[in-house]
């Protein structure tokens, strides 16, 4: 993968200047003997000084020419782990060029061999040795690491709750049959398939699996000349199909200049960066990924799988912003906990104006679709800490009245509106 290695040597320099030195006393530690490791990957582990009692686990995968220690020092994930109490695994590829194997037949199927098996051994080691939360395991990476992120989500959908790929390609796109680790057709954006075909490729990595699939966040620059921009659309096609979603966004906005963010329900989020090349990762993006994962929020301390709402635990404020067109609208809803007690499991009740009917939503489940509606938390956002807020939303049809609900209650408590 010489072409990718050449450009990502520059990526290492760019990433290295993004993060200030860590203030924590915790340090990166190499772990050996962590389990089955057919390709002799190295494992470095960052455990903050203070972690949650059952800490979430993040697998953070580097670019070609990189290493686990370089990705640790050059990204913001360790600093965010210090703030939120999760553990970060930083693997290192050891083959020539330090790229991960996303091309061989062994790598592209569950427990088939090569790098994904070693990466899974690292995750299992941390879950066992550090009392990790098996329901909150995540993966992210850039370039080669982004490609591996998509492969891990396809191979182990039962392990990862979500993943974020920075400048990657769809799972299976880089497959080769000649032993080469480089696929020029894929890199150049010339491997174009239907959403169904991409979805089938992802599903074929773990045949017969019918359980929950990971949520996915995708980032790509329009000027990427290494893993070209058409791959971004192919990734969207793959993961929306895996989730049974339309490729038409349910929500579109521009969080900052030159960014276009599209959402597909609450399962897939894609951020296109106008004019940005392959070195896509910049300061602040890691925080957005942590927020997408829900790692900035502490889950409820329930021992059951059923969410129980807790009425009357504090005050709240709801902001409701509508973007309407002829016969439809989207609504972005921000729920803020302005009290002093955490809300563990939430239900937001409001009444839609006559003629409005919800057609889809993200961040919550909505029932019924008209009249007096209750939005209940999704699996990834059950808790709202004091002083914190979360964002959810919906798309609806209307017959002329695109107005907003006049009042809201959270777990039976009336909320301020504004």
TrEMBL record:
The keyword Methyltransferase does not apply. Residues 1-25 form the signal peptide. GO terms for biological process: carbohydrate metabolic process. Residues 309-418 form the CBM2 domain. It holds the Pfam family Esterase_PHB. GO terms for molecular function: hydrolase activity, hydrolyzing O-glycosyl compounds; polysaccharide binding. Keywords: Hydrolase, Signal. PROSITE patterns: CBM2. The keyword Plastid does not apply. One of its GO terms (cellular component) is extracellular region. NCBIfam families: esterase_phb. This is CBM2 domain-containing protein.
